[in-house]
Structure prediction request, 148 residues.
Amino acid sequence: MKLNRREALALGAGALFISLTPFRGALASLTEDEIKAFTGGAAVVEDDIVTLTAPEIAENGNTVPIGISVDSPMTADNYVKRVRILAEGNPRPAVATMYFSPLSGSAEASTRMRLATTQNIIAVAELSDGTYHMAKAEVKVTIGGCGG
Prediction:
């Protein structure tokens, strides 16, 4: 059986897709494990308390700006303790953990991260009352990143 160039490329692309599918599932599992470790297995609510700011399309995956803010009065009785930022498609999903206290005044921070591919960015916030809140944003990476 002879393959022309187009058929060979299609066959190679299909093989690559099939070989990476289990890997994506493993990365999602790593992210879930990181969230469970951060929360101690507690329930996480996805609501509008946490705001995650990220570009819809990142032209360069090597430096993607993101920002987080958590709606909290930041009083001694009601404040944000910490926020973990995760990149679902990276080999090591935990990107940063930011710590806050009532003296912080507000629970806001920004940073830059490297993204391997198009993926979800997740921010999980722990409040002083022991509850956890989450926000997600998908970032489409066009070039660069960890994966090239």
Notes: The mean pLDDT is 87. The radius of gyration is 19 Å. The chain has one helix and nine strands. The chain has one domain: 5-141.
